[in-house]
Structure formats: structure tokens, C-alpha cells
């Protein structure tokens, strides 16, 4: 058998492959990442669990006002603002008296220069002749000329002395000529023009009918409440089980209950006609009181209709059934 001589081969140093080292590094990085993720999930879960316990976070408010009115808002100031009469219309009462009172400005008045442009056409000669005849003037009546042109001097007020405004020392009233009075009967009929009104078509309403006059002795009839003829009281022992009643109130004594029945009979006599009085004694909470009830209904629907009529008149009413 042949023998193998291993000494004839040279020795070689053994090294681990590089891929194995890279794989080890990747495994370590994955393990570290997994541990970090587990720790992060644990911290996040703890924060979620104690979030309600810690309370709502407080947000710091901003300093200064939210809105500021500008110093010069611009625009146009409306007239008649800030008056006491406006406060009366808005709130119903007048505001406090201010320290400084200012009167409203006077209304704009026509100046003497506003005269031109206001004159109309001259009237026809026929009208002027009628005016002359009515005034007893011989000749032709001449319309006054328009006012003279105003001078450059301003109008001064002499109201304390003469009670009228003056221009250059002359009263303004003397510059105006009052128109003469005209008698309508002296104006010729041919000058009076009637408006041309076309005839109404057939079937049209030419005048409105006048309503009939109401009689002077007309008076509104008032319904007089008719009280019940007689009060019929039924004992509680005579009531049958399942019978429909209505309760009109609860009182401290039977006399008060019967007095209330008398009052209701005088006020709602037509509704309580044929109904019988029932006073039932009841003890509740150590207190004794008396219930006022009415009998005489065909069934529960009839009792409900009766209570609806009383409730419409602001009267207490509850439908009940005898047990």
C-alpha cells in the first residue's frame, strides 16, 4: 500500500471568506435596529397611555389686541350722527347730556342769484287783460321784471332791529311784488282747456261703487255664560272601575273644591252641562287633599276632547280613568 507523504506540499494560511464578515455585520445592524424599534414602540405606547393623565397642553395666548381700529379709517362721515335724538330712537331713552352742545346747521336758503332760471314764460295777453279787469287797472298790466343782479356785498342780518334781511340798507321785502288775485270767473272759457280724455270702452268700470253705510245702532253680541242649573255630586263609592273622569284640580278642603266647581260652572256652563261633581279624598306624602273631578263622559276620547276645550281657555284639566 502506498504511503502519502504530506510533507512534500507547502503549507497555506487559512482565512475566513469576506462574505461571512459582511453577513455578520448586517446581522448585528439588524439586531440593533430591532432593539431600537422595540424601545421606541415602548416609549410611544407609554406616552399614549399617560397623555390623558398629563392634561391638555396649554397654548400661550398672543400679546396685544386681536383687532385694532385704525387711526384714520377713511371714508365719508354721514350727516346727523351722534345726536341725542338718535339715541332715543335706538334705545328708547335719552343719553347723558354732553359737556359741549352744538346746534344743527341752518337749512340751505336760496340766494338772490338763484332768481334767473326760475321764471317761466310770460302769460298770454288775454290773461293779462283779465287780470287788469279784475284789479280795476286801466290799461295793460305789466309783469314785474326779474330781480336785479346781486351786488358783491354780502347780505347782513338786521333781524333784531327790523326783523328782515337787508341788501345795501333796503329791505328785501320791498324788492318782491306780490301777484294780484285773479278771479277765475273773469278768465274766458276758451282759454280754459279741458284735458282730452278718451271715452271708456264698453263694459269698463267708470266709477267705484260706494260701500253701504253701516247701521248706527250696530253692536257686537256677547255670549253670556249660562251657569249650570243644579250641582249633582256623586260619591266616590258609586264610581265604576274603568270609568272615564276628568280632574279639574286638587284642594286642601272639600269646600274649596266645591267653590271651584261653582266658579267653573259659571264660566264654562255650556261645557259642564250634564256633568256631575266628584270630590275624592286622597292622602299623599302625609298630606290630605281633595281632588275635584267631573263625571259624565261616554269614554276616554270624550274626556280628552273636554280637556282640550278647557285647556284652550287656560283652565286645568287632566283625563283620568277609575282604577
TrEMBL record:
It comes from the Bacteria. Pfam families: SPOR. The chain crosses the membrane at residues 25-46. Keywords: Membrane, Transmembrane, Transmembrane helix. The keyword Membrane applies. Residues 144-166 are annotated as: Disordered. GO terms for molecular function: peptidoglycan binding. Residues 238-323 form the SPOR domain. The keyword Cytoplasm does not apply. This is SPOR domain-containing protein.
Amino acid at each position: 500500500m502506498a504511503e502519502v507523504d504530506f510533507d512534500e506540499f507547502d503549507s497555506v494560511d487559512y482565512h475566513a471568506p469576506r462574505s461571512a464578515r459582511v453577513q455578520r455585520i448586517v446581522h448585528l445592524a439588524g439586531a440593533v435596529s430591532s432593539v431600537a424599534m422595540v424601545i421606541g414602540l415602548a416609549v410611544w405606547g407609554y406616552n399614549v397611555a399617560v397623555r390623558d393623565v398629563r392634561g391638555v397642553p396649554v397654548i400661550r395666548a398672543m400679546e396685544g389686541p386681536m383687532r385694532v381700529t385704525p387711526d384714520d379709517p377713511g371714508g365719508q362721515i354721514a350727516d346727523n350722527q351722534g345726536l341725542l335724538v338718535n339715541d332715543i330712537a335706538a334705545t328708547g331713552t335719552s343719553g347723558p347730556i354732553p359737556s359741549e352742545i352744538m346746534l344743527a346747521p341752518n337749512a340751505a336758503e336760496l340766494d338772490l342769484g338763484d332768481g334767473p332760471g326760475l321764471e317761466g314764460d310770460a302769460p298770454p295777453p288775454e290773461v293779462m287783460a283779465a287780470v287788469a279787469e279784475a284789479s280795476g287797472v286801466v290799461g295793460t298790466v305789466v309783469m314785474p321784471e326779474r330781480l336785479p343782479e346781486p351786488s358783491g356785498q354780502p347780505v347782513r342780518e338786521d333781524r333784531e332791529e327790523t326783523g328782515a334781511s337787508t341788501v345795501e340798507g333796503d329791505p328785501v321785502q320791498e324788492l318782491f311784488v306780490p301777484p294780484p288775485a285773479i278771479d277765475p270767473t273773469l278768465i274766458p272759457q276758451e282759454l280754459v282747456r279741458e284735458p282730452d280724455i278718451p271715452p271708456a270702452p264698453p263694459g269698463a268700470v267708470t266709477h267705484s261703487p260706494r260701500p253701504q253705510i253701516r247701521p248706527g245702532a250696530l253692536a257686537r253680541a256677547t255670549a253670556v255664560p249660562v251657569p249650570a242649573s243644579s250641582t249633582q255630586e256623586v260619591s266616590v263609592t258609586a264610581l265604576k272601575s274603568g270609568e272615564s273622569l276628568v280632574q279639574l284640580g286638587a284642594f286642601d278642603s272639600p269646600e274649596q273644591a266645591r267653590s271651584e266647581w261653582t266658579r267653573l260652572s259659571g264660566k264654562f256652563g255650556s261645557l259642564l252641562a250634564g256633568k256631575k261633581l266628584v270630590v275624592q279624598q286622597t292622602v299623599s306624602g302625609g298630606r290630605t287633599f281633595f281632588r275635584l273631578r267631573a263625571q259624565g263622559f261616554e269614554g276616554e276620547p270624550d274626556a280628552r276632547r273636554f280637556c282640550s276645550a278647557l285647556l284652550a281657555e287656560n283652565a286645568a284639566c287632566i283625563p283620568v280613568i277609575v282604577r
